[in-house]
Fold each of these.
Amino acid sequence: MSRVLSGKPYVSDALRQRVLETIRELDYRPSRVARSLRVQRSRIIGLIISDIQNPFFTSVVRAVEDVAQQRGYAVFLCNSDEDVDKESTYIELMLAEQVAGMIVSPTASSNEVYRRLVEQRVPVVAIDRRVDGVPMDTVVSDNVHAACAVVSHLIENGYRRIGAILGVPGASTGAERHQGYVTALAHHGVPLLPELVRSGLPRSQNGYELTLELLAQSQPPDAIFTGNNLLTIGALRAIHEAGLGIPDDVALAGFDEMDWMFLVKPALTVVMQPAYEMGQRAAELLLERIVDPDRAPQAVVLQSTVKVRESSRRAAMRA
Amino acid sequence: MSRVLSGKPYVSDALRQRVLETIRELDYRPSRVARSLRVQRSRIIGLIISDIQNPFFTSVVRAVEDVAQQRGYAVFLCNSDEDVDKESTYIELMLAEQVAGMIVSPTASSNEVYRRLVEQRVPVVAIDRRVDGVPMDTVVSDNVHAACAVVSHLIENGYRRIGAILGVPGASTGAERHQGYVTALAHHGVPLLPELVRSGLPRSQNGYELTLELLAQSQPPDAIFTGNNLLTIGALRAIHEAGLGIPDDVALAGFDEMDWMFLVKPALTVVMQPAYEMGQRAAELLLERIVDPDRAPQAVVLQSTVKVRESSRRAAMRA
DNA sequence: ATCTCTGCTGAAATCGATTACAATTGCAGC
DNA sequence: GCTGCAATTGTAATCGATTTCAGCAGAGAT
């Protein structure tokens, strides 16, 4: 009798003892599958991120795991690989596995799948990126503001032809950081030059190729803003191979700190996003929603800070 | 009637059509939980790695996911965080979730849990690290040989006081790389100095602290061998902060390439392990075992290569 | 015409836990 | 002594898919 487990009342000590002993004897191991089937939910949290190889997301994973484990949940992690179809497939899979809820970094800011989830009362939290038009819990950082701040910093340091290598605009991060870039230029009266703006999937290789494109122009940029850490790595490689010096030939400022960055000379100016905290908050929001599925959706926006270092040092006066 | 799905024979076209239509109408979504309960196994592969923030393992994850997805499996990823208890807990959890099989990077080379798994015919593959005394599928790299090769290289380049920062000997990688180090010294008649050998959990912070310890000695090493990529990062930070030059003050050679290493000057000499291939092979072994649980266990040992770069450049002649 | 066999279909058992419900006992209150 | 309630425990329904079993219709053989 399973009343013994889960400490239900109305069981005599004698019986409780007998049951416990038998359990030990048989090396009994309850099937979570059967339990999930009966209870119609499990103690599993689904976590779908868009790139397992991106240190930003591994920090998020770490945080979600810590919170989940503390509360007795396990984490089912999947890698959507910036692919909307993979993402949808994994969401369906999670659903079929009866997860208690899921945290997703949506590849595209419009996806009908989320509307369905919300309507069906499936606890779900969007992290890092927003989903348009669906009232759901969301944890993001202040991308527009942070991008604007770091680009403004470049402008204030004397840079005028500021290139931008951004993630695809389909993801809200890409779009918002682009907007921050545009806003900063407008605010300082610096003309927006479309030929200096590139976007692609946030992968190191793309950062490399797009930066090469910028540098190959007849009037190359005097500074580059990268909208993602992998793009930053690619940009560094391109600048490096082009034999250019930072910041004298071209300044560089990007998103996200990485743990080896102290090695890079000159030190890089970056927007520091609170990755771990984002994961924590997302996990907490999810657990709250699991408890109370009817709570009003919350949108948490965390502050990022610009860490100014040498890669954006004041430009020498130019002719 | 579920004979329609899974294309069983003995169903008329009329019925098949009717069923399919109803399925569409109701937006029917089969419960994998119920299926798992009935069939006593699922289409999920468990993957337990010891550090989600280690790029080596994220490559492995990537590979396992690619193979799994191709074969219609989903991956349930967990992070044991180098903690034997967490690892065992997750294994139990996977078992209770009726995974089809699991791939684990064992934190300790002796763990009775694995014997039980193998005896109970649960498909399981050890990756990156061995488990002693249990006949199971294993995918590792040739750690002893690779460590020996890279340390020999240091010796041949004129270094004599070679320090070692290794992972804990409980994990087979730590022990084997240590053995490779010892072998190389012995082979070249270089005395083994115990005070130059340190080990700890493979984390960046430990690499930092242990390297500081080595450097603080009255007779500090003229070269350091690091047995893991995170330890390498830590060692770099320590050397960096100590204001020492590589390789003139102290040479450095370690394990594992990382994608940003082209940025580090001088370029680092490293052992390149085929991380992605290890993941692939492990996934393939697992899938084979799922199909045939009685196959004899295989041990795959992959070759690593030493990538010689500037951080181990020939030492200037010393007094 | 009867029997068999094949092709197909519906009904029912099954997986292992949870949980609702019924049955039993003991004990207090009237 | 009888009723009523609480404490305890056994029984059975349930979750949703798979799978076995039995039954039925029609074709072909005898």
Note: Residues 1, 3, 9-12, 15, 34, 36-40 of chain A lie near DNA strand D (CB under 10 Å from a C1').
Amino acid sequence: MTDSRAYHHGDLRRALLAAALEAIEEVGPAALSLRDLARRAGVSHAAPAHHFGDKAGLLTALAAQGFDLLARTLTEADDDLLEAGVAYVDFAVTRRAYFEVMFRPELHRADDAELVAARGRAGAALRSGVAALPTGGAPADTDRDALAAWSIAHGFATLWLAGALPDRVGDNPREAARAVLSRLAT
Amino acid sequence: MTDSRAYHHGDLRRALLAAALEAIEEVGPAALSLRDLARRAGVSHAAPAHHFGDKAGLLTALAAQGFDLLARTLTEADDDLLEAGVAYVDFAVTRRAYFEVMFRPELHRADDAELVAARGRAGAALRSGVAALPTGGAPADTDRDALAAWSIAHGFATLWLAGALPDRVGDNPREAARAVLSRLAT
DNA sequence: GGGCAATCTTGCCACTGACAAGTTTCACGA
DNA sequence: TCGTGAAACTTGTCAGTGGCAAGATTGCCC
């Protein structure tokens, strides 16, 4: 978290992560090239390896950042499950590069300590939003409800990103998500 | 649908698609190598190009096959939306290679005629299942309901495949899906 | 039986990720 | 102040990949 330009070529680690976000938005996470990132940052092709080990290492760092951001996003809307769901979809669409790396275990190291911690924070934010839901007297099955809420938000976001949804859904993800998610929130 | 070994090396096109399914199960669609498929089929590295043009061409054919299979699967359970949802999740888990290619537009050519047709059939099967749902007197918003049903099933399937679900969900996807999907089917 | 088109092979090029070994730059203590 | 060791980065190399071009083989059809 140092913000000073240091060492030979500046804050390379940070520069590479930023370049990775850009590149992923352009070509997707699978087509990401470490050598391209090095070129964007103005360093040699082997420089990234020094900071991240390999490609999976870089994407693991990115995924951890992403879960951290998502956790913060969800916490802000925590008292309103519908809005939390909308925020989830909005996160997926506006921070697409993060989202795609986060949910592709073959791209990163899922057992990385920092990643696990960040993912845990995001999961906790999600579950606390569901637990705060009024149950209307009926006994709540928080596990099941959380899973259902997560599934519908995640599914809508994924389908949106995949371009799989029909045109009639429109081009405003927040609005479309709110309509669909409200079907669950009774 | 010819089943006879024909031509120089047999039914290469079919053999390559089968090899691709295997390989994707093993290493994922992104790490798929055409040269590896050629090796598995016992042909030279350039043989696949003749049948599919390039990698995207092969995956497009695979995606079309997948949508066709999915359409048939959904049609079989068409009178029961919950069972159709369970079948959707089951398809994703048991025919994972198809599913992953189908919903990754960067891997295939989304405007391929055969793909578009097959995807249309799957979409129609989904919507007809929702339209057949009893509305309980209230005016149905089929579009929204179909989207919600699709989203929750797709989201659960995607999270399952990503290994993102907590352990307590268990290891039986059909059972777990039924519990979660029933939350929507009121 | 002869031509022809579909099928497949060989050879090549640019690109990639990973590794090894060398070089530059900085930090820190004697 | 200096020099020594570590961190940061470079250069060079290798095997593997996708895609293209050009050639060889095979089966089909008139």
Note: Chain A touches chain B through 38 residues (CB under 8 Å).
